[in-house]
Amino acid sequence: MSLAAAPGAPSSAAAWLLRFGLAFALLNTLLTFENRWPGFGVRYMPRLSFELCLLLVALMAWVAWRGPLSRRATHALAGAFMALVAVRYADVTAPAVMGRPVNVYWDGRHAAELLGAASQALPAWQVGAGLAALLLGLLALGWLVRSALAALSHSLAWPPPRRWLLATVGALTLSFAAYVPHGPDTRWFFSLPITPTLAHQGALLARVWWPGPHRANLSESPALAGDLSGLASARGPADVLLVFAESYGASTFDQPRQAQALKASREQLADAIQASGRAVVSARVVAPTFGGSSWLSHAALLSGVDTTDPADHDLLLASQRPTLVSHFARHGYRTVGWMPGLKLPWPEGRFYGFERLVDDAGMGYRGLDFGFWRIPDQAAMALLHAQEFDRQAPARDQRPRFAVFPTTSTHAPFHPLAPFVTDWHRLTGTAAYTPDDVRFALAAPLTVSQTTPRFLESLRYQNTWMADYLRRLAPPSMVMVVVGDHQAPALVSGAGAPWDVPVHVISDDPSLLHRLMALGFVPGLTPAPHPLGPMTQLTRLLLTAFDAPAVHEAPGAEHLAMPPSLPARSTPGS
User: Fold this and answer.
1) What are phi and psi of 80, to 5 degrees?
2) Which residues are CB-contacts of 225 (< 8 A; sequence separation ≥ 6)?
3) Which domains does the chain have, with CATH numbers?
4) CA 52 to chain centroid
5) Is the whole model's pTM more than 0.90, yes or no?
6) Could you tell me which of 382, 360, 368, 376 has the C-alpha nearest to residue 415?
7) How far separated are the first and last CA of the chain, in Å rounded?
8) pLDDT per position as a tens digit, 231-276
9) Pick from 174, 277, 181, 274: nearest CA to 235
10) Is the peptide bond between 413 and the residue preceding it cis, with omega within 30 degrees of 0?
């Protein structure tokens, strides 16, 4: 039989090779690309896709049995292939941008919120143009994939090349399977396969849909048996303000350029701490998340339970475990959850046991909006102080406060950023910011190349308002705990950065700070280079320091910078 008479035969072997080669190359490229760091782009990688080789064998078997794929079958296969491309993109982009592997279920639940934050930071026409370009790009890509699969199917209908293709794919697959860890790399020509990622995501979904077998996996809660006597003085129990500083990671100390860019604002904060009659000790701990998913760190610190696995977080919130919030409430504290980033109903929040849980809508902010996270951190702090920490009003509840305040102004994309306002009282009214303030903030350019400068600017803003609050408004006996919830995305913190975050404890009580130093904290705003342990360890350390009475000073306590005129606070009965 002549070449032209063979079923599915091309006009020449060269034509067959061109048709098959182009189709295979396109499909292979879509499953082997890598991230172009820093950013969301991709780059070509000259590797083979293991999944595509398996698909080629399956197609050969199908075509030999039933002939080329029908139009409907081609469309169905193209849909499945596009899903693989999406998984590949998420698999290579999430570690490069966020600094951690993707979790399709948990990240997907908050994708709309992240898109909303990005859309608020860009002009409407840019958002519309971007969505239109994305839609057109997906349609074009889908057409290319369908065309390539159809071409591949028809190419395989010609019998002569099949044996050579099957032999080649078999040899490559055997070479891939023969790889032994720490031995010769016999699979260098393959890109990392997508199948393990799919299997891992399936296992994560199974934990979500069938949580019963995993409930016992939650780590133990810390003992909450103390009486918080370490926070008491002749003036009464101290207020405690726990600030979860969004995206505040150890990279701001470890990377010289970032540390230098923040040096002046940190010195300003240190000066304000000392001028207010306080001192600060610092440490670093390992967060249960990286680049996002702040709630995992919130839950880990407030409960003392490991939430590194997001599924454990949801199991925790459905449990009856005790929390720092309930612990403070049992000892006479008014507990407040102050959450300007909370925009949707959060029934799970009942787990923590806040006496007052305040979201974006209930905060009473009447100023102009700044993007998706519409309430700037300084304004949120001004409202928190006016409503809870300022007890000048005759009818104000005089109980000590335990308030938890997760910030938002340092949240990616770090734009727009509100200006610092010297008049804190103004921030609680309708004239908090001017229209020019908003226009100027929105006019600042927003590009991937500007991510790190924007991030550093937002941290300088954080240091500035914290310094001014401590200097001018904070109650004298307030204990302020500032904890980074996670490192900034890898676009800022870099590839392979540790999951360490800083923690600062600011107080006018030398004995409390000395106890923390005995537990591993160091004087000043710069933490030691090695973490004390996971975030859950910080829960136990704080409980130890808050519960214990005054003890002997820790080695090195003489270096703790306290104003000379400040005496050690006396405990009741001393």
Assistant:
1) -65, -40
2) none
3) 13-207 (no CATH), 239-554 (3.40.720.10)
4) 33
5) no
6) 376
7) 108
8) 987 678 999 999 999 999 999 999 999 999 999 999 999 999 999 9
9) 277
10) yes
